[in-house]
Fold:
Amino acid sequence: MKQDKNGIKQSLNDSFKALGNVLKEAYALAPFAVIVLGFIAITIVWVTLHWGSLMMGTATLLVVFVSLCIFGSRDNFGEAMLSLIGGLLTLFALVWTPGRYITFMAAWIGFALAALLISSIKLAAKNEEIYRMASLRLADRPEDHATIEKKLREIVTSSKLKMLSPIERAEVIRVLAFRKLPIRYFGSCLHAVETLSIITQCDIKTIALFFADVLLSFSPESEIDARRLLDTLYDIIKDVPVPPEEFFQSFESCRRLLVSQTIAPKDFLQGLQSCLESGISSNDIYDEMVVQFKV
Structure:
C-alpha cells in the first residue's frame, strides 16, 4: 500500500513537472497567446449575441471543424460524415437562444482546452521519461543522471534543423544512449538523423541505429571526424542504386559482421556498397560478404 502511494506521488510530481515545462515553453514561444485567444473568444461570443444569425453559423462551423479533425486523425470518411450529419441535425433541431449558445460554446471550448492541456501533459511526461531513461543508461552512478539529462537536453535544444518533433528527437537520443555511443557524438548524429529522415522518410530509429553502429566501429577521434564520417555515410546511401529502405534492410542483415569487428569497418562499407551495386538482394548479402572477405 505504501509503495502504491509512493508511485502515485511520483506520478503526480512528474505530471506537475511536465505541466510546468509545457507552460514555460508556451510562454517562451508566445507570451500573450492565452490572453489574445481569450480576448478573441469573448469578442466572438459578444458579437454573436448581437447578431442572432451568427450563433447558428459559428456553431455550424464548429461542427464542421470537429468533423474534419475526426477525418484527419482517423482517416475514416464515413465516421467523419456521420459526425457531421449528427451535429448538423442537432443544431437545426434546436431553437438557438443566447443562453443556449453561451452554454454550448463554453462547454465545447472548456473541453477542447482541457483535452489540449491533458495531451500536452502526457507528451511532456513521455518526453521526461525518455530523457530519464537515456541519462540513467549513460550515467556511471544513478546520482549523475540529472547532470547528464541536462546535457542531453542542451544537445537537442542546440539542434538547428528542428525537423523532428520533440518526442522523435528524444527517441533518437535514447537509441544512441542505449547503443552506448559517446555523448560527444550525439549532436552530429542527431543532425544526420534529422536530415536523412526527411530525405528518405525511413524510420528514425533504424537510421539512428545505423549511424550509431558505424560510429562505434570507426571510433572517430573528434567531432569533426565524426561529421566527416556521417557525410560519407550519407553519400553512400545517396549513391547506391537501391531505395533507402532496401539499403537499411541490407545493412541490418549483415550488421553483426560490423559490430563484431569480423570485417574492418572500411572494408564492410565498401563491401556493402559493392554488393548493392551488383544487384545482390538483401537476403543474400550476408553470405556474399562472408565469401568475399573469407570469414
